[in-house]
């Protein structure tokens, strides 16, 4: 009976006791859905010694936090986390269950959806709800990014989705918010686990710096060639920004793939995004359209990038960028 299922849940991903940014963003998105549906918003926290994180989950918008705390869940493993989630989901029956589209979030959500015999919309970029039918509307680019598809899970519960990092907004942290903490005991034994975490190697590539950068200077094929693209690096160095680019630039070998912005690259929300010599194809725009200020430079006044730009400069990047560098150096 799908009517038995109530409440919006967010899987709170934590690594070494630090909550992932996407989980806080999902609490912000989940809050809106829960308010519309007039139900509680819950965070689901799994791990070893993670109870101390509950106030933080409440401060970012949760009414309740379900906690399963066990030494066997110290490091993420599909097997142990699945057991924790299944225990909670079967007992409390959430209506909507959201996960960050991180490697662990994707892994866990797909395994949970299979065991709960429900559907899962992967890599969602927009969330809403049809109040009358109490249906989650999870939207994502489809058919090579040419359309946005809204996917509904009509007959099964919970309605599940993984959501891309940086597309939703976290609420302001408010330590005066109050909420309920619900602890569940779990029976787990290390010797029953079929996998073992041997070593965790931290990712120290440039990817993190692009995702977290406040200012990004991104270049496209309009920079002409690898040499022309050096102007993008020069401008970024001058103003202390990170460099990004389009897929065409990555395919041309001017930038490594981890600096690609867009549907098949990173989704980012810096304060300032320079889009230079970038046409503004939808597959690129989905990765940067939520930036606070978008400054586009393109010689084609009809380039689609101007539709999402806060400020636009129509002209030749080869002339404009050196002038910008000169001006910023004076400042
Ligand atoms: P172009 O589209 O060639 O645009 C170059 C622009 O530069 C033009 O607007 C031109 O007017 C301008 N220009 C030329 N010379 C100058 C000059 N001297 N001064 C100023 N402006 C100039 N793309 C991504 O970026 N990210 C993705 O993640 C991504 N994923 C994709 C996934 C799929 C399944 C598919 C099918 C495509 C994907 N793409 C992605 C590719 C995308 O469709 C576009 O092809 C790509 O974004 C275009 O890159 P661009 O803007 O650098 O090049």
From TrEMBL:
One of its GO terms (molecular function) is electron transfer activity. It comes from the Bacteria. The keyword Cytoplasm does not apply. Residues 8-197 form the Electron transfer flavoprotein alpha/beta-subunit N-terminal domain. This is Electron transfer flavoprotein subunit alpha. FAD binds at residues 246-247, 260-264, 277-284, 298. Its cofactor is FAD. One of its GO terms (biological process) is fatty acid beta-oxidation using acyl-CoA dehydrogenase. It holds the Pfam family ETF_alpha. Binds 1 FAD per dimer. Belongs to the ETF alpha-subunit/FixB family. SUPFAM superfamilies: Adenine nucleotide alpha hydrolases-like, DHS-like NAD/FAD-binding domain. InterPro entries: DHS-like_NAD/FAD-binding_dom (IPR029035), ETF_a/b_N (IPR014730), ETF_a/FixB (IPR001308), ETF_alpha_N (IPR033947), ETF_asu_C (IPR014731), Rossmann-like_a/b/a_fold (IPR014729). Gene3D superfamilies: HUPs, TPP-binding domain. It comes from Cytobacillus solani. Keywords: FAD, Flavoprotein.
């Amino acid at each position: 009976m799908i009517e038995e299922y109530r409440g919006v849940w967010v899987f709170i991903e934590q690594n070494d006791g630090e909550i992932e940014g996407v989980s806080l963003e999902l609490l912000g998105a989940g809050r809106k859905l829960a308010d519309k549906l007039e139900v509680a918003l819950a965070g689901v926290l799994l791990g070893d010694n993670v109870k101390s994180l509950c106030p933080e989950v409440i401060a970012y918008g949760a009414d309740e936090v379900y906690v399963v705390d066990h030494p066997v869940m110290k490091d993420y493993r599909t097997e142990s986390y699945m057991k924790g989630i299944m225990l909670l989901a079967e007992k409390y029956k959430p209506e909507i269950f959201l996960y960050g589209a991180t490697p662990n979030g994707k892994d866990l959500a797909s395994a949970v959806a299979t065991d709960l015999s429900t559907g899962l919309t992967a890599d969602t970029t927009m969330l809403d709800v049809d109040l009358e039918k109490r249906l989650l509307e999870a939207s994502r680019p489809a058919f090579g990014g040419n359309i946005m598809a809204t996917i509904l899970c009509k007959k099964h519960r919970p309605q599940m989705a993984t959501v891309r990092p940086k597309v939703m907004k976290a609420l302001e942290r408010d330590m005066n918010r109050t909420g309920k903490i619900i602890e569940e005991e779990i029976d787990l034994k290390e010797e029953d686990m079929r996998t073992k975490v041997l070593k965790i190697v931290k990712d120290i590539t440039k990817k993190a710096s692009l995702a977290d950068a406040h200012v990004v200077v991104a270049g496209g094929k309009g920079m002409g060639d690898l040499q022309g693209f050096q102007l993008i690096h020069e401008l970024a160095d001058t103003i202390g920004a990170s460099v990004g680019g389009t897929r065409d630039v990555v395919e041309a070998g001017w930038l490594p793939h981890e600096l690609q912005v867009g549907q098949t690259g990173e989704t980012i929300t810096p304060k300032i995004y320079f889009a230079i010599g970038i046409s503004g194809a939808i597959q690129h725009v989905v990765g940067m359209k939520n930036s606070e200020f978008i400054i586009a430079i393109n010689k084609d006044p009809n380039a689609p990038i101007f539709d999402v730009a806060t400020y636009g400069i129509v002209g030749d990047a080869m002339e404009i960028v050196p002038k910008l560098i000169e001006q910023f150096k004076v400042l």
